[in-house]
Amino acid sequence: MKNQVYLAGPMEDCTETHMKGWRDIASDELGMMEIDTLDPTRRVSFHDQLGANLQDVTKTMNVCKRIFKQDLQDIANSKVVLADVRRNSGRGTGTSMELMFAHTKNKIIILWADAGDFIHPFYEAMATEKHYSLQEALDSVAEYY
User: Fold this and answer.
1) C-alpha 121: how far from its chain's center?
2) Average pLDDT for runs of 10 along the chain of length 145
3) What's the CA gap between 24 and 17, in Å, rounded?
4) Which end of the chain is more exposed for a tag (fewer CB within 10 A), N or C?
5) Who's near 83: CB < 8 A, 6+ residues apart?
6) Which domain range does residue 59 map to?
7) Cα(31)–Cα(25) distance, rounded to whole angstroms?
8) How far apart, in whole angstroms, are the C-alpha atoms of residue 73 and residue 82?
9) Which residues pair with 6 in a beta bridge?
10) What is the pLDDT at residue 48?
């Protein structure tokens, strides 16, 4: 396990700007603290650069399975998982699966939500911490290194 942070969060039903925006900020901020990030959006080579939704792009099952396995490997190689669980950030089915996997691997799980969001009790049970701003979540991540 390396000192890396996996950046979990919705990608399905999200524009490229939406799915990458916060991850770029997190990578930059943590990088300044010499904390490496693993960003799953780096594997979205089939994503339309003009911002189309992921489900609009034809994918084969093999590509989907490969990406899924690579994401799980990234989580296994991370110390911390930072997850965008904001209510309006997207569907989040994959994020749920990633968080359960991270939980079974005893990873530190930092949730980022908006104040007033209903956070599913399963998320609450798996989370190490929950924060209501990206900056607070990033500061929390840094405390584990």
Assistant:
1) 18
2) 87 81 96 95 59 52 83 96 86 89 98 93 96 98 95
3) 10
4) N
5) 8, 9, 95, 98, 99, 109, 110, 111, 112
6) 4-143
7) 10
8) 15
9) 38, 81
10) 42
In this prediction the pTM is: 0.86
The gap from C-alpha 109 to its chain's centroid, in whole angstroms, comes to 10
Report how far Cα 35 is from the mean position of its chain's Cα atoms. 16
Distance in angstroms (rounded) separating the CA atoms of residues 127 and 105: 13
Identify the H or E element spanning 5. Answer: strand 4-8
CATH number at residue 64: 3.40.50.450
Residue whose C-alpha is closest to residue 137's, from 116, 120, 105, 115: 115
Count of domains forming the chain:
1
**CB-side exposure of 81: number of CA atoms within 13 Å?**
33
Q: Tell me what pLDDT residue 141 has.
A: 98
The reported pLDDT for the residue numbered 34 is: 94
Q: Are 76 and 4 in contact (CB under 8 A)?
A: no
